[in-house]
UniProtKB/TrEMBL annotation, chain A:
Pfam families registered for this protein in UniProt: Sigma70_r2, Sigma70_r4_2
An MF annotation (GO) of this entry: sigma factor activity
tRNA-binding listed as a keyword: no
Protein name: RNA polymerase sigma-70 factor, ECF subfamily
Keywords annotated in UniProt: Sigma factor, Transcription, Transcription regulation
Location of the RNA polymerase sigma factor 70 region 4 type domain: 126-172
Matching SUPFAM superfamilies: Sigma2 domain of RNA polymerase sigma factors, Sigma3 and sigma4 domains of RNA polymerase sigma factors
Provenance organism: Pedobacter insulae
Record GO biological process: DNA-templated transcription initiation
InterPro entries: RNA_pol_sigma-70-like, RNA_pol_sigma-70_dom, RNA_pol_sigma70_r2, RNA_pol_sigma70_r4_t2, RNA_pol_sigma_r2, RNA_pol_sigma_r3/r4-like, WH-like_DNA-bd_sf
Gene3D superfamilies membership: 1.10.1740.10, Winged helix-like DNA-binding domain superfamily/Winged helix DNA-binding domain
Automatic annotation (TrEMBL), chain B:
PANTHER family reported for this sequence: PERIPLASMIC SIGNAL SENSOR AND SIGMA FACTOR ACTIVATOR FECR-RELATED, PROTEIN FECR
Swiss-Prot/TrEMBL keywords: Membrane, Transmembrane, Transmembrane helix
Short name of any one Pfam family annotated for the protein: FecR
Domain FecR protein: 177-272
Record InterPro entries: FecR, FecR_C, Ferrdict_sens_TM
Positions of the Protein FecR C-terminal domain: 321-388
Transmembrane as UniProt keyword: yes
Domain of life: Bacteria
Stretches that traverse the bilayer: 81-99
Source organism of the structure: Pedobacter insulae
One MF annotation (Gene Ontology) recorded for this entry: sigma factor antagonist activity
Keyword Transmembrane: yes
Descriptive protein name: FecR protein
């Protein structure tokens, strides 16, 4: 999340002045936030030109929409704007950074506690995503990982064969195959338990 | 998850069709990058400051462009150095005052150009061609066709008003000069196919045939070149303070004596600019330009400085307008003076206001004066002299 270097009131005042077409206030806001915006885009795209484009677009948008938008919290607004712009670029440029690569970088991060939080958060969200695949897969997945039932217990509960349970779990897990080695192995252990 | 699956997910998200789990996943994926390398890891403070200014300028440029397009009329926008405020909000930066738009009297009305009262017309296509034998031919918008033949070189004026050099087998090289007066401009195509646009109060000297291992021309004033590619025979443009070496490319060179520096602006390709000191190029006094860069060479500065160019501004004259990007009144008036063939007098101390804007070069001088007046410049005209007072 972006840090508002001073207090929120300072941003509110600047935004109010920007609404009154004050270019000086706009410059002040740019001075305050450009670096965080640029850096956030750069970390994801690893390309100075794209990062410049995104920074330019975001601040142009702030000016264009100054009369329409009601930005209560400017820093979170910017954070979301950068993220959405980065995703648009990733789509346009067909850019995907393999997940194991990112996890590997995280494991050597300086701030290990923070990195660990990000990693855990990611694993949880990834599981949740996998769970959305089909209702049948979802049910089995939930029983297996959330209720911690064995495949045999699930088979009995749902009145299907253990083989079917394993197949369904296998399908869900196959979504992880390829790049997410870490999660893949963890989940594979669960499938045959 | 592989690339294909990820991009499908991204598609859904960008189209606003992602469900809660997908959004949460992408959010978490995005956050994984937080510990990637910082953008400024290998940059020093000056490089960082450059990036900051580059983005900021490009934002201002864009906003200004929109402002101009919205109004669809020529105007100059006043920049002002903000003495006190600048210290804590704007250090070294400039504010676009018109965007404030708070004063309704600043609104600009559309004024129809009327017939000139002062008989000061804008410049037009006119020049004098001096042949190798000293003979002079006046060039203007009138007759087309073959103008002259000299030693196997046929000079024709095509229907676009360009002077075209064609060569026959028995040609020998002779030196020609084309010079434009104040209030004149001209276009020509050299024998190698290179196109040259010559601005007002300028001249180009060139051989009718390029022999030897280079193509060499000399200029004074301002010219825009589209050099025909010929790797085996580099093209060289010499002016008082510099020489530009070219393979095949598009660039503008402004070498007017009353401007602070010789400015070379590269639009395409690559050029090498070398500073000339007492007739020769000293070692290490060269810079290779990339497209979008501008080199400045001046007699009183030992090094060539290279900046990001406003390409549009550099070639505005060739495209039929004046463009000012943070120009002071003197810079504006030097261009007006050359194009309208007028003199400019200043009464009193001029302030340091900077202006931004575009003016069509085909306007009568009255319209230009109107624009200046609306931009709060105190201006009057007497005969062929424009008087600016503070």
């Amino acid at each position: 999340m972006f840090k508002s270097k001073e207090n929120k009131e300072a941003d509110d005042l600047l935004l109010q002045q920007i609404k009154e077409n004050n270019m000086l206030a706009f410059d002040a806001l740019y001075d305050k936030y450009w670096e965080q915006v640029y850096n956030a885009a750069y970390k994801r795209l690893k390309d100075a030109d794209y990062a410049k484009d995104i920074t330019q677009d975001i601040f142009l948008q702030v000016w264009h929409k100054r009369h329409d938008i009601n930005i209560d919290h400017f820093a979170p607004y910017l954070f979301t704007a950068v993220r959405n712009n980065v995703f648009k670029w990733m789509q346009k440029e067909q850019r995907f950074t393999p997940i194991p690569e990112l996890l590997a970088h995280l494991s050597v991060a300086k701030d290990n506690a923070d990195a660990e939080v990000l990693r855990k958060e990611f694993v949880i969200k990834y599981e949740a995503l996998v769970n959305t695949l089909t209702p049948a897969q979802q049910e089995i997945f939930r029983m297996r990982f959330h209720d911690d039932l064995t495949t045999k217990e699930i088979a009995e509960k749902l009145n299907i064969s253990r083989k079917t349970v394993q197949n369904q779990l296998g399908k869900s897990v196959s979504q992880l195959r390829g790049s997410l080695d870490l999660l893949y192995f963890v989940l594979m252990l669960h499938v045959y338990n | 998850m592989d690339k294909k699956e990820f991009l499908e997910l991204l598609n859904k998200y960008n189209a606003g069709l992602a469900n809660a789990e997908e959004v949460a996943f992408l959010d978490a994926y995005y956050n994984l990058f937080d510990h990637e390398d910082e953008a400024f890891l290998n940059l020093n403070q000056a490089e960082k400051e450059n990036i900051k200014n580059e983005i900021s300028q490009s934002i201002k440029q864009q906003l200004l462009q929109e402002q101009i397009e919205e109004k669809r009329i020529p105007l100059l926008v006043k920049y002002k150095w903000l003495a006190a405020a600048a210290v804590f909000v704007l250090i070294g930066s400039i504010t676009l005052l018109l965007l404030n738009n708070q004063n309704p009297t600043d609104q600009i009305a559309i004024v129809k150009p009327k017939a000139s009262k002062h008989n000061v017309e804008p410049g037009s296509n006119k020049a004098v061609l001096t042949l190798a034998n000293g003979k002079q031919i006046t060039l203007n918008d009138k007759a087309n066709g073959v103008l002259t033949k000299q030693a196997g070189v046929v000079i024709t004026k095509n229907k676009d008003g360009q002077l075209q050099y064609q060569i026959t087998s028995e040609a020998t090289a002779g030196i020609n000069t084309i010079s434009t007066p104040r209030g004149g401009q001209y276009q020509l195509i050299l024998v190698d196919g290179t196109k040259v646009w010559l601005n007002a109060a300028s001249a180009i000297t060139f051989p009718t045939k390029f022999n030897g291992n280079e193509r060499r021309v000399e200029i004074v004033g301002e010219a825009y070149f589209e050099v025909a590619k010929n790797v085996g025979q580099p093209f060289k443009v010499k002016s008082k303070n510099q020489v530009i070496e070219v393979l095949g490319t598009h660039f503008n060179v402004n070498t007017y004596d009353d401007e602070v520096a010789d400015k070379t602006t590269l639009l395409e390709g690559s050029v090498k600019v070398s500073k000339v000191t007492n007739g020769e190029v000293l070692r290490g006094n060269s810079k290779v330009l990339k497209p979008g860069q501008q080199a400045s060479v001046s007699a009183d500065q030992s090094q060539i400085s290279v900046e990001i160019a406003d390409e549009d501004e550099a070639v505005a004259w060739k495209n039929g307008y004046f463009k000012f990007n943070k120009a002071d009144i003197q810079t504006i008036m030097r261009q007006v003076s050359r194009w309208y063939n007028v003199d400019v007098e200043y009464k009193g101390e001029m302030n340091k206001d900077l202006f931004v804007g575009k003016i069509n070069r085909s306007e009568h001088v009255e319209e230009v004066l109107n624009i200046l007046q609306r931009s709060k410049i105190n201006v009057a005209i007497k005969g062929r002299t424009i008087i600016i007072s503070n």
